[in-house]
Amino acid sequence: MKKILFRKLLIDYLVFFSIALLSSSIIIWVFQAVNFLDIMIEDGRDYLIYINYSILHFPKTLSKLYPFILFFSLFYVTIKYETNNELIIFWNFGVHKVEIINLIFKFSIIMMMLQIFLTSIIVPVSQDIARSFLRESKVNFFGNFIKPQKFNDTIKGVTIFSEKKDAEGSLYNIYVKKEVGDNEFQITYAKKGIFKNINKTPYLVLIDGETITGNNNDVTNLSFSKSQFPLNNSETNATTYKKTQEVSTLNLFFCIKQIYKTKNIKNNFVYEKIENCSVRNLTSIFKEFYKRIIIPLYIPLLMLIPFLLILSSKESLDYKKLKYTSFTIGLGFIVFSETTIRMISTKLIENLIIISVPIIGLIFLYLFLIKQFGFKISTK
Question: Are 246 and 214 part of one and the same domain?
């Protein structure tokens, strides 16, 4: 009978957690997707790139919400069990409170490993793939990102300014500056500009203007009634290089190991075999490693906190106070875990102290609960 009760308890936790995590993640992801759409429009990206880029950010949203939703799910379901007198069934069938604590502790290890798998493998891979879509894509919708009365440098090496833009996308009194090379420049003025595809190649067609080309020694003026400015193979200034959060966890570990192995912590050492692996970027690497591996260590602690509620019965005068206190403690640890990311540095001793917090907190809470429940059978 105990196995049936334990199975039902875990299923109730998992069902509520899964629904809460998925629904809240979708809501937040939709808001993020709207922001991504604005960015993609400004960069002139294809909608297919936008869809893929947005979807690949969903695992990151899941990982961010995972600790809080897990804590809230256990807290809510435990209160529900207490309110509906379902815990009395456990006690009547001889279930010791210590058995509940040990069950949740084992369950928390599994949930912690899932979070580590999500943050250290799934999220970095998905982020890297999302970045690869930007690296490999080109600008497609040129008219989208040009705003009147604003200098625009979305296209790499090209700055465009337009005094006016009509409903059809035509530009008026347009200025185009193109980077030609070292000590060289090309500036074009035109009364009108139109984005057109000619033989499947995008162009900015300029009408009634003048092009000034020059270097340190010579300047050339060329007037025209019509000129075609090619835009094929245009790249944007959007960040396309791999960021630290997109580097694999294994490479982050090898990077840290390599830097300390070579004892180059105080110079400008760069390990070129791994992207972003340098002494200058070491703090960022430590923070990213901390987010992936250490923050999930708070999971067992957060999953045991709701069981402070069974210290007292719901009829007790202290139960309401205990409910608010335990929720505040759990929320405090979640906030603390995120806050400590800023405290991570290149100093190993300080980092070890920060890392030890969830471990010490877990040991203390587990021993406290065992001491409270270990020597007597509850008759709630």
Answer: no
What pTM value is reported for the model? Answer: 0.75
**Number of domains comprising the chain:** 2
Let me know if residue 380 belongs to a domain: no
- Which residue carries 């760069």 as its tokens? 270
- Give yes or no for residue 12 having a pLDDT over 90: yes
- End position of a domain, from candidates 169, 197, 230: 230
Burial class (CB in 10 A: 0-12, 13-18, 19+), 347: exposed
Same domain, 212 and 282: no
The position carrying tokens 């067609």 is 205
Same domain, 365 and 219: no
**pLDDT tens digits along 36-74:** 766 665 555 666 777 888 888 899 999 999 999 999 999
**HEC letters along the chain:** CHHHHHHHHHHHHHHHHHHHHHHHHHHHHHHHHHHHHHHHHHHCCCHHHHHHHHHCCHHHHHHHHHHHHHHHHHHHHHHHHHHCCHHHHHHHCCCCHHHHHHHHHHHHHHHHHHHHHHHHHHHHHHHHHHHHHHHHCCCCCHHHCCCCCCCECCECCEEEEEEEECCCCCEEEEEEEEEEECCEEEEEEEEEEEEEEECCEEEEEEEEEEEEEECCCCEEEEEEEEEEEECCCCCECCCCCCCHHHCCHHHHHHHHHHHHHCCCCCCCCECCCCCCCEHHHHHHHHHHHHHHHHHHHHHHHHHHHHHHHHHCCCCCCCHHHHHHHHHHHHHHHHHHHHHHHHHCCCCHHHHHHHHHHHHHHHHHHHHHHHHHHCCCCCCC
Q: What is the pLDDT of residues 132-178, one digit of tens each?
A: 777 666 655 555 567 777 777 767 777 888 888 887 778 888 888 88
Tell me: pLDDT of 299 over 80: yes
Do residue 48 and residue 126 come from a single domain? yes
Q: Are residues 277 and 324 in the same domain?
A: yes
Enclosing domain of residue 349: 2-136+242-373
Domain shared by 207 and 325, yes or no? no
